[in-house]
């Protein structure tokens, strides 16, 4: 609904930036809270303000009081299972502590604002049956999953004890332009790495994920808000894709003859198979809009363009350095012009 005000934490991140641009494009006034500004966040449609901060930060109180959001989408937090395994306490602070601070700030200063938490399918761990329904047992297999589960508990606490409007979205395997980590990005990196003769991946290839494009995550959030819905919802396509199938699709786009192999090693914290039931979200009118093949094609186009841009910047920088170093000190400490350098 155009004209409403939405505040997005983690707006400089992958999902946060997509959600900010989607809501701005729909006519919402957007307050973007994040650690850094990019060209992408600076051009969010209907942007009220870029609020630079690292949560928890008391500056969030001022932003909420000034902006008076009707919807807060909490995207801030960590995004790496592997990093959470290496540094679980750091992951806790950046995820659980930040979520608790954001919820309490909202409780104190904007208690009527809807709070939508971007959680993760990692709370399910390795489910006993597929597809996974929201009522499935929560059995995380990583610190990241446990910390997302704790964030869900905090959100439910504020709904039950303080009467706040809360919805939780359990995001499955999100991908899309500007994704710079996780399986889709990692496979693309290996296809373009000239030092690698083959693409070696963890696992057996039979592991599966349920991929959802970032645009559809944004649409899921909007569906929940417009439906005045609360509770827990899976956000996915409702389709299981094996990592072997994903790698085969990506290989066709790069077409460089690299063979894909699997080393049989399952990394600690990685689930085996995911396929979501999205019936609960579908009952609100939600339908995925981005087909996986089309979404991957768009992502690869962006990935290649980014890689080319980085290469061009490096080339320009190298040329610039050569052009400006027209004088150097000789062995006697005297400046002299260097042959072939500069005009």
Proportion of helical residues: 40-55%
Low-confidence stretches are 321-343
Second rung of CATH, namely the architecture of the domain at 77-175 and 211-237 and 271-290: 3-Layer(aba) Sandwich
Q: Give the C-level CATH assignment of the domain at 77-175 and 211-237 and 271-290.
A: Alpha Beta
Polypeptide structure, described:
The chain has a seven-stranded parallel β-sheet with strand order 3-2-1-4-5-6-11, sandwiched between helices. A two-stranded parallel sheet has the order 7-10. It has a two-stranded parallel sheet with strand order 8-13. The chain is α/β, with parallel strands linked by helices and 343 residues long. The protein is globular, with a radius of gyration of 23 Å.
Describe the secondary structure blueprint for this structure.
Blueprint: E1 5-9, H1 14-25, E2 29-34, H2 39-42, E3 47-52, H3 59-67, E4 71-74, H4 81-86, H5 88-109, E5 114-120, H6 143-162, E6 166-171, E7 173-175, H7 182-192, E8 198-201, E9 208-209, E10 211-213, H8 214-226, E11 231-235, E12 241-242, H9 243-254, E13 259-262, H10 279-282, H11 292-324, E14 327-329, E15 335-337
Helix pairs in contact: 1-8, 3-5, 5-6, 7-9
Question: What key phrases describe this protein's structure?
Answer:
343 residues, alpha/beta, Rossmann fold, 7-stranded parallel sheet, two-stranded parallel ribbon, 11 helices, 15 strands, globular
